[in-house]
Model the fold of this input.
Amino acid sequence: MSFASVLVLNGPNLNLLGTREPTIYGAETLDDVARRCREAGQRLGLAIDFRQSNAEHQLIEWLHDARTTQQGIVFNPAAYTHTSVAIADALSAIGKPLIEVHISNVHKREAFRHHSYVSAVADGVICGCGTQGYVLALERMAEILKLR
Ligand code: DQA
Done:
């Protein structure tokens, strides 16, 4: 089986998963999430490049690199979801299939989390499914890549 490459990208503060507000984000660490993504990738025929950065410019650089190296993107932009036109522009510029993920249900939370600059350029959005949302996003990505 040939594996399609998918970038699983994580924004600021997600390196603190497991200790960060566990009642909202759960007990799993980012390493646990990476492991789950790689296991799902094996099952779905996706090669997973799993990354996290707290820096907007680094996320944008990785998105630019993805233009030539990745077939799809699963992205939890964290707080940049609600603030970053630059990240939304990068996603539009690279034009790859994109599933946006949020661990928590942002619509059940503060009003400033209800708007996403990323959703306008995403093929799909998964939120409020906990860290399982990453696996659901990869399942959808596998379908999208199969249809191409
Ligand atoms: C988040 C939701 C965002 O509002 C927040 O800033 C995050 C995480 C989530 O996964 O639920 O850092 O993207």
The radius of gyration is 14 Å. The longest helix spans residues 132-147. Residues 60 and 87 are 6 Å apart (CA to CA). The helical segments are 22-25, 30-44, 56-69, 85-94, 132-147.
